[in-house]
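Lecture notes, unit on protein representations.

Consider one protein chain, 137 amino acids long.
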Amino acid sequence: MNKPLVLVVEDDLPIQNLITTTLRAHEYHFLTANTGEEAIMETASHNPEIVMLDLVLSDLDGVEVIRRISTWSNLPMIVISARSEDTDKIDALDAGADDYLTKPFSVDELLARLRVTQRRLNMIQNEAAAEASVFTN
């Protein structure tokens, strides 16, 4: 199974390093962004397949980043946040996030959520390919 390109949006460098080291060790391709505006720009210019996003960023709230990206893309977004209130989770999911992981998290859970998201991506891509290969006369 090919590893997807993951955009990691995290302004806390130790956490960003943990995530990217984990991705590198498991042969994922990744990009990083430290701000919400940078995340939007990276998404538009590099077309990642999955976004992993912190909600607390220096310039924009992560929910706003999700809303903006969701207006022109349906790529899967996994929120990784210290915010653990139900309202925060609901706001992020309603804005377009596909999953929500609360800090602190285990590396195994992070990888499991990536695998789930990747399975969904593969299923969607396979369905699209099957539809494109059907000829109707």
